[in-house]
Amino acid sequence: MVGGNESSVTDFILVGLFPEFQHSMVLNFVIIFIYTFAFLGNILLIILIWGDSRLHTPMYILLSQLSLIDVTLTSTIVPKTASNFFTGKKTISWIGCGTQSFFFLILGMSECLILTLMAYDRYVVVCNPLRYPIIMSPRFYMHMVFGCWIGGFISSFIHTVYPLHFPICGSRETHHFFCEVPVLIKFSCEDTSVYQLVVVVTSIVLLVVPFSLITVSYTFIFLTVFRMNSVKGRRKTLATCSSHLTVVSLFFGPNIFIYMTFTSSHRAEQDQALSIFSNILTPMLNPLIYSLRNKEVVAALRKLMGKCVAS
Q1: What is the CATH number of domain 12-266?
Q2: Transmembrane stretches, by residue range (predicted)?
């Protein structure tokens, strides 16, 4: 019996958010509020981008993909977590765990690649402005977006199916609030050090390499900006790039720590705190970061509000 509900012997048990925290009810309501804000904020940003022809540019199309990822990512995690807490049923089926892990991985990996493409877009617009319409043609960036999703799908499929085949011994309880690869690894009763090394190598390819490309892109951007004679142009470029750099820091920081170190060295509370920050809090902040400091998005919002008032 788990939380007053029967569970199958193949089910996993997710103890939830910080089970020893005394004010767990308050914590879960805060998480639900953040999720609601993130969901509505990102949906609004998608509507603004696709509803205003002035925002039909590579940068904003990529931003709409980022918002789509954030909406789906938080919806993959929070509703199940809240349901488990309020119903007292802390179990998740083997299929449910695999499905949640798959969507979490494909969205996370696609976001990593999308952020890299956004850095490349900024590099081209700052360092090669005359060639920007040629390089970032609609066909080219749509192919890049499609490639991001395909790459995320293939990698997440492999890293979901393989861990689910590990034999599980003893307790199926984990001190986490959703299923992901480190959780599946901890369930196994056999030596998974080789696979954990594969995860680290994969993380190098999907985290360190994109992060390095982003760093190189912004190195060239800053060198170009510092050579600008116009102070106004310099400030405008830095303001545009600072939004993306903030999101990059919020995404890559926690994920590099989680996936590039062996799971045996992590404390449960540490993983939970980083997961909340990276997968729930950051999706709420992204629309604010990109909208409050972006005149085009603010103008599109005012235009939409004007239409709503007029109707």
Answers
A1: 1.20.1070.10
A2: 26-50, 62-82, 102-120, 140-162, 194-226, 238-262, 274-292
